[in-house]
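Notes to self, Membrane protein:
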Amino acid sequence: MKKNMQVLQVAFTYMGTVVGAGFATGQEILQFFTRFGNLAALTILLTTIFICWLGTKIMLLANEIQAASYEDLNRHLFGDRAGRWISLISMLNLFSVSAVMLAGAGSVFHEQFGIPYQLGLALTMGLAYILLIRGISSILTVNTIVVPIMLLYTIIVVIVTAHTPMANNWLLLTSIESPLKMIAYAFLYIAGNLALAQAVLVPVGTSIADRSVLRWGGYLGGAGIGFMLLAGHYALSAHMPGIMQYEIPMGQTVAMLGYTIQLLVIFIIFAEIFTTLLSDVYGLTLQIRQHTGWNQPLLIALVLMASYFISLIGFSTLLSILYPLFGLISLLWLSMMFMKTSAN
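result:
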């Protein structure tokens, strides 16, 4: 029973780390998959295979070398010099994403509940600090709560969609986009998510002694991500192309169910922003601690404060500037990761 619970914790943490705010709103699925029509189901299958394989590989390698942070893993894979540079770039990415997530949390508080943006930021930072000083166990626990709720919501979306006239659209949709572009976007999705997920997959791999737990947790987590991608694509396809005009397209798929479900959507969006923030800040502090020796609570406070100042730029502005850059850097990381893991 204990082993099964650990497998679920690893799986849920992997899913919660990858399934961020872009996924919860539906924008990520729409942009990377659904807009490519009926062939998107094939790229989702391809994505699922890579996420299962490489995510599990990251945790097993971290366990094997007892990596203190993702920098140790990158140095092991790519050598000292290249590994340091890749880790530096990863650190900048994680720091930037932390600022983006913090800004997103402030926006949710302000736009959905009328709470001042600054107060929303302060509340999010305070809660994040309380959880992060407890270590990796708090991240595992938070994801064990949040991800099942996300899964429940995904199942509700599928059931509602199945009763709509356009439920078969995911098999019928056509697209003018080229197949090469569709495959490129799938790899862009894999690269961007795994490059950031290593911040939490590495400490998870190091902290759990039983490699079979990591293996089954990685496979189950990857399969869960694939299921949610396919479910989201199925639901969004039924409302194409009109749904592309909405900021939160997934919310529109269940809009007829009323205010309670809309509140659930808002909660899930905030929760996914928050779990991504926790993962990124935790991974950052582990790497910085390796170089400075400063204590963890101090580093957590400093990283959160630095993220706060960048988050003042605003959510949408940060997204438009930083995310295209993440994609290009992450593709380089993925190609190197693929070559190294294939050679092992």
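- The chain has a mean pLDDT of 85.
- The two ends are 33 Å apart (CA to CA).
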